[in-house]
């Protein structure tokens, strides 16, 4: 009987903890340019930026289209307010020479 009571109390505390988490959403849309040209096929990732030992949560990922446009939307459950962060992975201007950087 005591074992069943312990299991029930554990389940109740877990469900109470789950209710304290809030589903939060974030989205971003934009156009990436490389100089005066659209930046096509660039990888974009939307994260919830977490601090401490908690790893960042990936909310959404995608690539830009031929016009450099992208749209990302995602959600996660957190106790605190989420901090959306956009990472852009590209090779724009990789061909620049050292002399052109001056």
Q: What does it look like?
A:
This protein has 102 residues and is of the alpha+beta class. The protein has one helix at residues 2-20; strands spanning 22-31, 33-34, 37-38, 43-48, 57-63, 69-78, 84-89. The chain is elongated. The termini are far apart. Its main location: secreted. Pfam families: TTR-52. This is Transthyretin-like family protein.
How many strand elements? 7
User: Can you give the helix content as a percent range?
Assistant: 10-25%
Low-confidence spans? 97-102
What is the makeup of the main sheet?
3 strands, antiparallel
**How much of the residues is beta strand, in percent?**
35-45%
Strand order of the largest sheet: 5-4-7
Principal-axes shape call: elongated
Mean pLDDT: 81
CATH class of the domain at 22-92: Mainly Beta
Radius of gyration: 21 Å
Measured between the Cα atoms of the first and last residue, the distance is: 78 Å
- Going by CATH, the architecture of the domain at 22-92 would be Sandwich
**Would you tell me the structural class of the helices and strands?**
alpha+beta
Layout of helices and strands:
Layout: H1 2-20, E1 22-31, E2 33-34, E3 37-38, E4 43-48, E5 57-63, E6 69-78, E7 84-89
Antiparallel strand pairs: 1-6, 2-3, 4-5, 4-7
């Amino acid at each position: 009987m005591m074992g069943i009571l312990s299991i029930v109390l554990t389940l109740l505390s877990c469900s109470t903890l789950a209710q304290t988490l809030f589903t939060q959403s974030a989205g971003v849309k934009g156009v990436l340019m490389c100089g005066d040209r659209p930046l096509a096929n660039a990888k974009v990732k939307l994260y919830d930026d977490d601090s401490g030992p908690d790893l960042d949560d990936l909310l959404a990922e995608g690539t830009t289209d031929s016009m450099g446009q992208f749209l990302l939307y995602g959600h996660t459950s957190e106790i605190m307010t989420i901090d959306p962060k956009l990472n852009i992975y590209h090779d724009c201007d990789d061909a620049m020479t050292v002399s052109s950087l001056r």
